Every structure is written in C-alpha cells, then in structure tokens.
Amino acid sequence: MSEPVLRAIGVRRVYGDGTAAVTALDGVDLDLHPGEFVVLRGRSGAGKSTLLAILSGLDAPTAGRVELNGRPVADADAVRRGRVASVFQSFALIPVLSASENVEVPLRVRRVRPDERRRRVAEALAAVGLAGHALQRPAELSGGQQQRVGIARAIVGRPSVLLADEPTGQLDSETGRSVVDLLVRLVHERSMSALVATHDPSVAERADRVVEIRDGRLVHHR
Ligand SMILES: Nc1ncnc2c1ncn2[C@@H]1O[C@H](COP(=O)(O)OP(=O)(O)OP(=O)(O)O)[C@@H](O)[C@H]1O
C-alpha cells in the first residue's frame, strides 16, 4: 500500500487539569492514505471534533504527534500552505462575499496571483457543479449549494488531505447524499485523503474504511 499522507501517532488530548481534566483522546493512532475516504464515527462527545482539530494543526495534542508526509504538522503551517483543508457542518462561508469570492479566500491568504486565482476558482466551482452561481452570495444559495461552495473552497488549494466535520449535518437526506457523492468522487479523482466525522449512516456506507472513537481510542472497523 502507498505511504500514508497523514499520520496520528499516540495522540492524546486532555482538556483542563486536576479533577476537572477531560481526556478526549487517549492514544489515537491513524494512517490516512491517498485516495481514501475514511469515516470517523463516535457518539456525541467522543472526541471527533478534537481529533479533526489536531489533524488539521489547529489544536495541539497533549502528547503524541501528527505527521504530514513524514513531517510534523505544526502551528497550522500545513493549513496555511493549503495541504490540509476542512469542510464544516455550518459551511462557514462569509455572508457578504459571493460564491467565487468565498472560494478565493484561501488563495488570497497564500498570495496566489490574480489571474491564477481566477482560473483556479472557476475550476473549483465547476468541479462542484456551481459554475453558473459564481456571483451569488450564500443567502442566495440553497443549503446544498452553500456546502458545495464550502467544498470548492476546500479543494481550490489542491490539498492532499480533506477533513470534514458532519458535512451533511444541516442538509436534508437527499441533498446530503448528493454532497457525499460529490465528496467521494473528488477524493477518488484527485487522490486526496479524506477523514469525515459523521453520525450519518448513509455517509459511512460510502466509506472505504470506518473508524470509531470509543473511550478516547480508535476502533478500526474495516
Ligand atoms: N475546549 C474544551 N474544553 C474542555 N473540554 C472540551 C473542550 N472541547 C471539547 N471538550 C470535551 O472533550 C470531549 C470531546 O469533545 P468533541 O467536541 O471532540 O466530541 P465530538 O465527538 O466531536 O462530539 P459531537 O459529536 O457532539 O460533536 C467532550 O467530553 C467535550 O466535552
């Protein structure tokens, strides 16, 4: 099998200290490979969001480490360079910006040249089926379309890892299914590694592999 893109090695995360301490993750090991759509399950409070935050470099483990292509993911560096991108339950779009301006944000942060930005934004919007909606603001789009904009923003930097926290949580089941179809297709076509936290069994059905957090540890299902 190919080398893992992202590795969690003995990741532990304890919130607070003393008697108030909560151990959210207690020695999590996980390898994500290119082209793999992996679903992360676990009951509410199991630590799914905590693990995603640590894998993206936005939060630091109390112990253990995360490696991206064999190097430490530190200080959100990988996020800034666009190697790890996230999709959110609430879409997290900027309301005053159009769809294309929202998708452009990560490229502006990375100071990509304007002509290159325009080309890549158009390509990302086309990839999610929204070429005709570039000028609409989030409030002028349906929930499913807003999540597609969120996905376009995530893929515009050509990440090697895509992390998603309940990406279908605010969508009806049919819209959610089409968003998952899109995610699965993009992950396979672009050989990204995806880790998708969800309670939604229909998302787990589409997974190449399912892992579950239980008592702070990862249980590997298939
Ligand atoms: N900033 C924080 N301070 C203290 N405890 C926290 C903090 N963030 C999370 N926790 C605790 O860590 C544990 C894991 O939380 P986390 O949000 O990762 O769970 P989750 O699996 O994503 O849950 P859900 O499915 O409800 O979103 C919970 O017990 C939670 O209360």
Automatic annotation (TrEMBL):
| Superkingdom in the source lineage | Bacteria
Give me the Gene Ontology terms describing cellular component. plasma membrane
The protein depicted here goes by the name Putative ABC transport system ATP-binding protein
Gene Ontology molecular function: any one: ATP binding
Q: Where is the signal peptide?
A: none
> The ABC transporter domain covers which part of the protein?
6-221
Taxonomic lineage from the root: Bacteria, Bacillati, Actinomycetota, Actinomycetes, Micrococcales
Q: Supply the CDD domains for this chain.
A: ABC_MJ0796_LolCDE_FtsE (cd03255)
> Does Transcription show up as a keyword for this record?
no
Q: Which SMART domains match?
A: AAA
- On whether Transport is a keyword of this UniProt record, the answer is yes
Identify the keywords attached in UniProt to this record, alphabetized.
Answer: ATP-binding, Nucleotide-binding, Transport
